[in-house]
Amino acid sequence: PTAPIANRVSDLLARMTLEEKVAQMRVIWLGKFGIFGADERLVPDKAAKAFANGIGQIARPADTMGTARFRTARFRDPEDAAKIANEMQRFLVEHTRLGIPALFHEETAHGLQASGATVFPIPPAIASTWDPDLVEQVYTVTAREARLRGATIGLSPVLDLMREPRFGRMEEFFSEDPYLTGAMGIAAVRGLQGRTRPLGRDRVFATLKHFVHGSPQSGLNIAPANMSERDLRENYLVPFAHVVKHANPAMVMPSYNEVGGIPAHANPDLLKKTGRDLLGFKGVYMSDYGGIENLVKHHHMAANNDDAAVLALNAGVDAELPEGAAYGNLPALVRQGRVAEAQIDAAVARILALKFEAGLFEQPYAELKLVTRGTNTASDIALARKVAQKALILLKNDGVLPLDPQAKLRLAVIGPNAVEPIFGGYSGENAKAVGILAGIEAAAGPGIAIRNADGVWITQPDANGRPGHNSYIPVPAADNAARIAEAIDVAQNSDVILLVLGDRPEVTREAVQFEQPGDRDSLNLIGDQDKLVEAMLATGKPFITLLLNGRPLSVPHLAEKANALVEGWYLGQEGGNAFADVLFGKINPGGKLTVSIPRSVGDLPIFYNRHPSADVNQYVEGKHTALFPFGYGLSYTSFDISEPRLTKKEIGVSESFTVEVDLTNTGHLPGDEVVQLYICDEFSTVPRPLLELKAFQRITLKAGEKRTVRFDLTPADLAFWTLDMIWAVEPGSFTILVGSSSASLRSTILVVRN
Known about the structure:
Blueprint: H1 5-15, H2 18-23, E1 27-28, H3 44-50, E2 57-59, H4 73-76, H5 78-95, E3 103-106, H6 123-128, H7 132-148, E4 153-154, H8 178-193, E5 205-211, H9 229-236, H10 238-247, E6 251-254, E7 258-259, E8 262-263, H11 268-278, E9 284-285, H12 294-297, H13 305-315, H14 330-335, H15 341-357, H16 368-371, H17 378-391, E10 393-397, E11 409-414, H18 436-443, E12 448-453, H19 477-492, E13 496-502, H20 529-538, E14 543-548, H21 556-561, E15 564-567, H22 575-583, E16 639-641, E17 645-646, E18 650-652, E19 657-665, E20 671-681, E21 692-701, E22 706-713, E23 720-721, E24 727-728, E25 732-741, E26 744-753
Parallel strand pairs: 1-2, 2-3, 3-4, 4-5, 5-6, 6-9, 11-12, 11-13, 13-14, 14-15, 18-26
Antiparallel strand pairs: 7-8, 10-15, 16-19, 17-19, 19-22, 20-21, 20-25, 23-24, 25-26
């Protein structure tokens, strides 16, 4: 244990057969259920067959997939899930030739995806807090809950950019902006892994995903992402570069799609030249689920799994998820001379190094007595509520908000998303979750009379009357017409309407099966929700709308007609309580958009940091502008941000500089403002974006309070890839802009000289 990890790895590798080495590159997922008997105890003979040469990883020890017996409450209980993980680990340690423990991985996009674990808001909402310290706390809790159940790897954060909102996986992404995504990614990795390595006992290794999705054609999952090398370096690689440099992530997962015409899992230029040489990544590349087999099925690049394994290994993929179907034949491929054993050794060395670093050879087991009491604690629930509070974005308010909780008021809570807590994809189950209606009922004073109606359903429920979550099934128009009629009756007998609209997991998600799509060709409210909006407008009552959704939605009519509009994304287990806090003014909303909201799908792409030539012309229908711009969000109070001041008006290309602004709360309530700093390189050897976010701070001020906000910038903030693809600062004029959103800025000029 006291020897250097590199020495321990070399020693162990020297003892291993080729088959044992390859087993370390493989994973078992659904296959793990086959090693348990009817009594849910591990069967040694079955385990001996499955783990004949050991195993590198075991996928999702806390999942509930597989046979019916593992869908019981016993398996979903945190402590019992950890017991099952320990049984598999104990067999590997005590009953395989070399006793090498396994790594366990879990999904950790916005909390551990396991029953009973804390469910935080989805990544677009987490990022809408613009609070990296808070984000680090989220993933610290996630890491602890995962490690308590035996996991050592978290499959997050996702660093893809939200530039194609038709793509159902938008709900997994932080932002359209490279810098903001990188900042959130750094915070997430620090939360998962800790700020220093080696890995602590309450942490898990982080996995950067997905290298690199880009913007898939037509917004369809797995479709090619066509991007130039310059676009890749200027945008899609930026978050990965920042996180690799500042947070030392252990793992990177390639994307399913083509990157520059070559599938990521078979792309040595991407994984080796770009990932390792350019970005400096030194950890483990592990495939996305089925990513290597997809070289056969989806990309038609390999004739069979053997060919796919050769392509992936040559590209640099170290481990195959989820079952190792292609890599299982690597020993034969080595003996045939198609791959070198040295390639196997290099991959296995990286994997073994993580096992030694995690302390698995000294303490391979989950501590059962800690699992339940360390999961979804009171402080974890309070944190989930705080994140949801800070994530809520006030997009419009004519003064109707906040409502007085002590007023005498008839409130109609109407809409398909009003009752059920909606978590989005890669979420666990949590019986403590609070939906919007329940949160409002708990917070409302005795004078507020609340009535509820569904208004419409987005999708038909399953055979048991519950929302399906598997397939989107359009609702018969007559059924929704009856629900709208009921909603009209409720609304007409109310003083104020709250409409809770948006998405459901059945229509916004990762499309993993052809029969279960999650991508869309429209960004409108799906189904009959627009009919419900028109019916509520016809009542003449003031109405507030809360959107709960996994992708940006185009709602220009709603934005024009609603008295107030709030973007919530999916708010996690405390969403109902958090929204009630904002609705009744206990909390002043301060979230900001991390993505530009389009007026229609025809405006795509609409991301804010476009090149100058992108908007020289306009559509017949009008100018190409966002419905709500990047960085936008209102408050119940008002703020003033002064013109920016530079400590130096002129600097050299290698000099740093400081920008200061005065932020003043000019209203009558305490509140939060996100001060955002952008730059614009006025003239350069290649076109540059009109705006680039380079710094931000979320500040809380009392009514009337004033504070000076300081930003320290370095040459790296002005540098870019020149005409010759050299990372450098060019002399010239830079506009420095500071404000409350990308569309509300004050500026000054910085001159950079040789």
